[in-house]
Amino acid sequence: MNNSPYFNPERETMTRQQLEAFQLERLKQTVRHCLTNKFYQKKFKEAGITADDIQTLDDVRRLPFTTKQDLRETYPFGMACVPLRDCVRLHSSSGTTGNPTVILHTQKDLDEWANQVARNLWMVGLRPDDVFQNSSGYGMFTGGLGFQYGAEKMGMLTVPAAAGNSLRQIKFIKDFGTTAIHAIPSYVTRLYEVMQQEGVDPRRDTKLKVLAIGAEPHSEEQRKRIEEMMGVKAYNSFGMSEMCGPGVGFECPEQNGLHFWEDYYIVEIVNPDTLEPVPDGEIGELVLTTLCREAMPLLRYRTRDLTRVLGRTCPCGRNHVRLDRMRGRSDDMIVLRGVNIFPIQIEKILMQFPEVGTNYLITLVTEDNNDQMIVEVELNEPTDDYGKLQKLSQEICRRLSDEILLKPKLRLLSKGTLPVSEGKAVRVVDKRKVYQ
Ligand code: AMP
Ligand code: ZN
């Protein structure tokens, strides 16, 4: 029985120096492995480099970037670095435009992935006698199987509840003595609403103590709300199918950023325009290189997620880099009348008003040849006090325009009006006219 606060003590508590030596060794192996594949052979040729050019960790910057477009163009198996008979699973993203993407896994890849997830769950205090309910979609979405195998590896009784059907979820939580749940943040708030309707108080009527929330951007304010509602700690979990799925980065009990596991990835933050590294503390695009993948290693994968380095040490004893919560993806950025806005900025303001709920929708429209933003959010309590509503609306609008530098139209709606999605929440609908 492991009595340590760490799941993999040796790897989790390496010094920076040990970690970097480990990374360099793994990077060299990964590059050689990639070069068994035609796609990488061509890329290296174009970049004029060979495996021997990788002598220090900084040499990672000499490697070519890879992108989602590369995955699409080589669909389905063009980036595999092992024969297909050595692969045991694939995950695929739906892909709204063009080909979907495919990520292949060998058995060893799956074992490592489970190890990463187990490490995270152990890190936030879960132990084999806990009961873990996974309320995220199963199937191609990696949040299902990813957490399932990780929680099992850790030794917990694992309930593959999957997404939706809140009444059944609540019954499971009560009947099975669930102590930890993984769900996307927008679903946790939905679950809480149904608990309220059913007269279930999570503090009084359940054994819940930990939530893992992730898969979609959410603000610190949203997390605090979730913690208050459910009466438990909620830890941010970052995952990405291309890297494996959940398990890539996770908060420790200090809740001071996400530890990204540097024994599994080389983490770079670059300026998305110049592709040059940005200094620690500055926001840029997250670029990840896998260090342990057999079936489909990825070199310098441009995630499009925007974040920054917060530190490289932590009171928890882990020296794996700490990254700030994702500010959003560069593709999610709204450009309205020349102003750049991230949905999370709007969420941050809305969540500061206790009168409104956590479900909101941003719609972009063209009215009288003018592009406009409409922000819709649900009220927590019904009210017909028009004066009060007007004052609230003015105050929210004022705070929003301070934050995003333009004034949106605000609609306060009654609870249950906005659509709730079972998967990742849809926060922005763009109905603007496009002028040629
Ligand atoms: P998928 O591969 O479909 O699971 O989507 C991965 C993407 O989900 C990432 O690139 C992020 O944009 C987003 N994502 C995952 N986890 C988080 C998180 N904890 N915070 C913000 N965004 C996240
Ligand atoms: Zn820590």
Describe this structure in words.
The strands form five sheets. Strands 4-3-5-6-7-8-9-14-13 form a nine-stranded mixed beta sheet. A four-stranded antiparallel beta sheet has the order 10-11-12-15. It is α/β, with parallel strands linked by helices. The chain is globular, with a radius of gyration of 22 Å. The protein has helices spanning 9-12, 16-34, 38-47, 68-73, 107-123, 142-154, 166-175, 185-197, 202-205, 220-230, 343-350, 386-404; strands at 87-93, 101-106, 131-134, 157-159, 180-183, 210-214, 233-239, 246-251, 258-260, 265-270, 284-290, 301-307, 309-311, 322-323, 328-329, 334-336, 339-341, 356-367, 370-379, 409-413, 428-430. Helices cover 31% and strands 25% of the residues. Helix 5 crosses helix 6. The chain contains twelve helices and 21 strands. A hairpin with a 2-residue loop joins strand 16 and strand 17. It folds into two domains: 9-331, ANL, N-terminal domain (Rossmann fold), CATH 3.40.50.12780; 336-430, 2-Layer Sandwich (GMP Synthetase, Chain A, domain 3). The N and C termini lie far apart (66 Å). Adenosine monophosphate is lined by residues 93, 142, 214-217, 236-241, 303, 305, 326, 329.
